[in-house]
Amino acid sequence: MKYLPVSLLLLSCLHADWTADIFKKSTELYDETREKTIQIYKDTLETKPLSHEELRKERLEKAWDNVVDELQEGIHYIDELKTAPDSSWIGRDKEEIQEDIDRLFDKIIEGLVGGDLTVYKSQMQKFRKEIDENKAKILTYREKKIGAPDSSKLYTTKEEYDEKIRDIKNENKILENEMRIIKESLRQSFADIGVELSIGQIDVLLTRVDGDDIIQISLVMDTLKNITQQILYLMRESNEELRQAKKYYGMHQVLLELVVYIQQKYIDKTNSIYLPKINRVILEAQEMISQTKRLKANEEDDKRISVYAHNIEAQEWTLKVAKRYREDLIRSRDKMIEAQKVAMANLKVSKNTYETVSLTADLYTLISESQEMFLEVSKIQVPDIVPFENIQIQQKYKELTDKIE
Where along the sequence do coiled-coil regions lie (predicted)? Predict the structure, then answer.
């Protein structure tokens, strides 16, 4: 019988101790990192964030400085548009000027609410991604737990996997609470323009493909209402000087043009992007159902027939929800068209008055009255949102949104 040299035995023991030591240290490092991560989330949660009122005040205070130059530039373009030819070989025609106006309006919109909307989107996306990643980790740990030992110095035990799962679930609770804070802030943003939505309705809005558009328009309307107040203040301070008053009224005209522009942008986007894409999804679902029904009709094996029947049921569910999604988009577009008619009617009378009025007080009164228009239009253009009846419909909406974005 041959015996292993003492040095080899010693090396083998040292290697085992070294492996165990490395594993122990990596486990400790994991636990330490996990604890620090959870503590960071807890600290974030316990740190008092700015209230909705404080955030809104900050946004409105910045809005004037962000767009005052663009509003004055808009007066120039609108005046130029009045006298420009429909087409021209030399000089600028209406189409070129309108393109400049559209670019300017996009810049103004970004200056008014771009940051707010980006924050809402990025935070929600970040939290959703982290929650999904954590759910995937939980699934992995559950699978690993099945073959894990009850006790071990080298390998993760069943109890340790349970602990990891509990930690991740606690982390997700914190993330979900952060999402609730964002939803409440959005709910308050709609309340600022006189539109009361429930958290359930906010959930629908955050799931739909046009949700960001509707949120953006609502934030713009709230900000424009505030800017109008600042224009009224400047008119009061102009000491009845008609030329100054007409300048401020011109800025107000730009705001009214901007309302019609952003509404039209939503209508065009719905007609040219969202509806064609959801129509394609519906057509594909109908074709898939027909194909599956043909396969089922030609199948003789009972088990395969049962699978086809189940597939048809799932495909018909997708078709049903997709049709509901399309109806929601159509209703929202039609409400926006209705709101735009009110905005355009006010714009027309405003233009006509601007050309004929000769008293500062008349211009002041007209701008004051437009405040009611902002509220009326804001309420009309927000769609009638039906909360999701169950998590399955919400999940299917998310899947459809991914397809039509």
Answer: 117-185
